Each structure stands twice: as C-alpha cells, then as structure tokens.
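[scheduler] slot 2 assigned
[scheduler] job type: sequence-to-structure, two independent chains
[scheduler] chain ordering preserved from manifest
[runner] begin chain α
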Amino acid sequence: MPRRNRPGRRSDGGPSPERELGAATGWARSEAGADGEWLVRSVPGAQATKFYRCPGCDHEIRPGTPHVVVWPADETGSVADRRHWHRACWDARARRRPTRRR
C-alpha cells in the first residue's frame, strides 16, 4: 500500500499538537529578544489588504506592503494583542522603541 502524505495525524485521527499550533498561529515562528518571547508571522504584500499603523515608526502600512504580525508568545496573548510592524522596524526594535501615538 502506498504511503499517504498526510503529516500531522495522531493515531486517534485528530491533528497533531504541532498542526494545531500551526493552525492557531497562522504558521508563526517564535522569536526571542530582550523584550520577551514573540510569535511572528510574515504577511506577503498580496495578502495585505488593509491599512495598519506600525508601532515602531508610527507610519502607515499601506495595502500591498509586505510586513509582519507580532503577538506575545505566552498564553495570555489574544487577537487584540497583535500588532502589524514593518519588517525593518521589527528588526530594529531593540535600537528603537515603539513611538507614542499622537
């Protein structure tokens, strides 16, 4: 019998914990920094359909602009804790703290 390419299945037929985590986080990766543990998901320009404000530079992220979505890795993080950052601003967050909104 040929092998099926259905990764992430448990013996009882349910999805594996890794697969559940991927679905819950949108295939986010974990990043650690001096400011804590974060889950980071890249958003390609084709999927960026709304305006967002980057907390790093306080400029708009326009539709069609690739960026990252970041939220705390702890279990208390929720949808309301997600922030959309320019990739360069996220990478520079140790050197440049988030600005205050006007």
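[runner] end chain α
[runner] begin chain β
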Amino acid sequence: MADRPLFKVGITTLVVGVVLCVVGVVTIVYGRTTAEGDRAARSAAPSADSSAAAPAPGQKPARSGDPSTGKWPNAATAGVPQNVRLVESEPIKITEEGAVIEAQDVKGDIVVLANNVTIRNSRITAGGWWGIIQRKEASGLTIENSEIVGNGVKPLEFAILNYGGDITVRGNDIHGMMSAVQTRHGLIEKNYIHDPKEFPGSHVTLIASNEGSPIGLPLTIRGNTLLNPLEQNSCVSVYQDFGLNHDVLVEDNLMAGGGYVMFGGKGKYGTPYNIKFINNVISRRYFPKGGSWGWLATWDARGKGNTFSGNKWEDTGEPVPLPS
C-alpha cells in the first residue's frame, strides 16, 4: 500500500510530460511557421530605400552617405567593378615597362619603377608611407577602377604618392588613409575619395600639390567626389612647401570638409599663377562654412591667370564668393 501513491505520482508525471511534449511540438511548428511568415512579409514589404533606383546589372550598390545625385562618383560607380574576382597578392614591385596589374587583392604596397604601368580593377590594402608610389625614374602610371584603403592598424600616410612623371588617377575608391593623392602634376578625375582616418599627429589632405611641376606638366583635378568630415586639413591643397606652385586646374568637383575646403597656393616662394578653381560644388554637409574654418585659404588674386569662378553651394546653388 505504501507504493501506490508513488505509482499514482508516476502516472501523473508521465501524462503531464506527454502533454507538455505535444504542446512543445505544436509551439515549435507554430513558431517556425510564424517566423517564415514574418520573413516572407518582410521580403514582400517595401524597404525604406525602395524609392531609390536599383543599381544596374554588375554595378555595386551605393552606401549610406554617398552623394545623392548620379553625377558624382560614389561607392556604386567608383572602385573595383562588382563582377571582378580578385586574387590575393603580396606587395608588388614593378620593373617591367608597360606592365599591367589587374584583378589583384594586394596586401601591402605597390612600388612602380618602370614607365607606362597600369594598375586596374584591384584592391590595395596598406599601412605605412604609401599604398602606391611612382618613383622618380618612372612616368606614365595609370591607376583606375581600383580601391586603395588603409589597413586601419598602421597609418597610411598617402594612398598614392607620385615622385615621378605623368600620372593618371581615374575612377578609384580611396578611403581610410590620411592623404589620398600627392602629386605635382597629372590627371585626377572621377574618383570617390572619402572618410580619411585620423591618427595622432596626422596631416589630412585628400589631394595635395606641394609645388608646381618641375617638368612643365599641369595638374588637373576634375569630376571627383572629395569628402573630408575631419576638421583638418582640406579636400584640395595647392601648397608652396618646396617651391612656387602653378598650372593647377580644380574643376567640377563635389567637395566638403577639412579645416578649409581648398588652399589656393599663396606662399613663400612667390606669386602662384594659373591656379584655377572653376565650377566646383561646395557642400556644407559637415560644416556651415564648407570647412571647419571656411571654404578657401591662401588665395592670391594677383597671380596671372588665377581664377575663382562658377563655384556654387550644394544646398542653395548660390555662388561661393572669395573670402572677404
């Protein structure tokens, strides 16, 4: 008789366990069905970005914060094309004339020692003084449709540094560096240069010329998106660090940020000449004056051919004046 209550409890526990099991199975089935229904409903519902046009086949989607109009280079139109498959590579030193580096995922830098080299459809992730450098004995380097980015650990001083002759930098996505391009001459066009990374003691200028070309070549900066949310130093700087500057055309770019958006070339080596800032759009997305301090510094109106005209504010379309 003493065993009967234990038997009853055992039967009761068994029945309750079976009931709970059945409820659990029903709950799992119901939960799975409900979750699948929710996912289907979410995929069917329009997203917050559904009003934006879908990227064309083979085109990368735009990122948040990209320029809002199709005219300006952005993440969808600059850099490595979406359909390119990259092959991982160690740092590269190029000594062959006319060499073509294509579809490489380079972990480290590229040093160019030969003429007429082309780097295209590649990604360069680097830290140190440069991502790509054209040495003084080389000329004719073309860098196009590539991504140059700092590794985020070691500061990348210059994404592209040119000590040599002519250079073309076109259609690239450059970011995560302290400075993007430093050269005295060449063509820099249709690039998306954005989100520089500030390290202690860094000097952030997206595109800089430290003196005029010693071999008589002009510098043209045209059709780029240049976004510098930091309070230093500029989007485009025409300096006189090492000599008189001259023959620089900065035309039809979208620019925002830095201490000043632009530096105009005035300095200790004399009166700069043929410095032209024409038909650029200056954005106030980061600072009310375009840059933290203003939109233009070191402008010298006395120089022959120096021109500041047709520049407009992005938000109003009103002319950007010379600073008073």
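[runner] end chain β
[qc] chain β: The first helix runs from residue 4 to 44.
[scheduler] slot 2 released
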